Amino acid sequence: MVPQKLRANPGGQISPDEVIGRDQLISEFWEILDRQSLMLNAERRMGKTCMIKKMQAEAPKDKLPVYHDLEKVRSPLEFVETVLQDVEEYSSGLRRTARRTRQLLTQISGAEFSGFKLPEFAAPHWKRLLTETIADLVENQERKVILLWDEVPYMLGNVGNQAAMEILDTLRSIRQMYPDVRMVFTGSIGLHHVIASLKKEGYTNEPTNDMYAADIPPLSYVDANDLTHRLLLGENISTTDSWVSAAAIAQAMDGIPFYIHHLIIKLKMRGKKVDAAIITKTIEDCLLDPLNPWKMDHYRERIDNYYNDEQRPYALNLLDVLAVSNEPLLFDELFHNLKQEPETQNKEMARTVLRLLERDYYIIRQSEGYCFRYSLIKRYWKLLRG
Ligand SMILES: Nc1ncnc2c1ncn2[C@@H]1O[C@H](COP(=O)(O)OP(=O)(O)OP(=O)(O)O)[C@@H](O)[C@H]1O
Ligand SMILES: [Mg+2]
User: Fold this and answer.
1) Residues with CB under 5 A from ligand 2 (ion)
2) Domain 221-288 listed as CATH 1.10.3470
3) Domains in the chain: boundaries
4) pLDDT tens digit string along 344-381?
5) How far is the CA of 144 from the centre of ligand 2 (A)?
6) Whose CA is closest to atom 16 on ligand 1?
7) CA–CA separation, 275 vs 240, rounded Å?
8) Topology given in CATH for the domain delimited by 298-385
């Protein structure tokens, strides 16, 4: 049961019963997981972590969900160690251990191995160890094992290109070897960015093409209103009409739960009775705040970090043009504007970068043309770029 009143907690851990909506999507994910592994993509702060934790908390009886945040993993051996610890934790309830992995460790070291911290000499054997660890998990379980791995792209970034390629390939071969095991990858950087940078290093494999790629959208209109209303009540914020204010906030935040939580806190701090004018003013203050409470500079920085020198001016100019347009623009109109700038004259490059911007959730393409995907990001971009 979702509590009638919720406290705002932007970016913090919230309990699964405070996660609003998502039920339909979660049940679709379980269905997909009956068939294959899953790669969850979404814009930052959309609620990926909340969702997979809710999946872990409410998994069907025939599934064993194992959640882990991999952000701090720095080497393939540390990854094996993390998985091994999870496996032993889940197996110990059954009074079992990761038997195959321990046998392999004993064989490598030449003496009985019983610790938890993997010794450095095991490092060259990490692939076999990882495979055995997953084998132990699968064999010890009557339930279908679902490995819910958060921040996979961070881990891949941490371990270096060569190891990242090998981890992706090893995981793919484990999925083939143990067709019953399921993996769910997610994270705040798109995995496509990591794979693109590996491809620049000569990587040619398609390590996730057996996984189902799914998108996590913002909350539905109804759920976003519902969340906002509960937060207004929970934070004791006075309004002229609570449902009218909830709808205005939810819509201005494009249904993105993180921004909804955040705006509620700001409104609470203002201490005034909330109406449409106060909502608009508070949003603008938040977007302009140099302390960047909504972490909006991410949208600008991602272009510097993940678009190459040739692509970057295209991305910036395209977004500048779309930010000031009141309606969607067809490619020809867009390119006509782009051509006014000397550094963006190449039509094919414009098309390529439009696709990248689409994949990074800045824009969408409809039959009427291209436009910003989220009005909030458009507003931010306009303010940022003057
Ligand atoms: N369904 C939801 N109901 C209520 N609040 C939510 C929901 N989803 C997310 N939130 C709020 O948004 C915040 C961010 O969510 P979460 O950490 O799950 O996003 P994320 O997509 O994993 O972010 P990142 O890209 O930074 O990893 C949470 O701390 C919570 O306050
Ligand atoms: Mg997250």
Assistant:
1) 48-49
2) no
3) 22-215, 221-288, 298-385
4) 999 999 999 999 999 999 999 999 999 999 999 999 99
5) 24
6) 47
7) 6
8) Arc Repressor Mutant, subunit A (1.10.10)
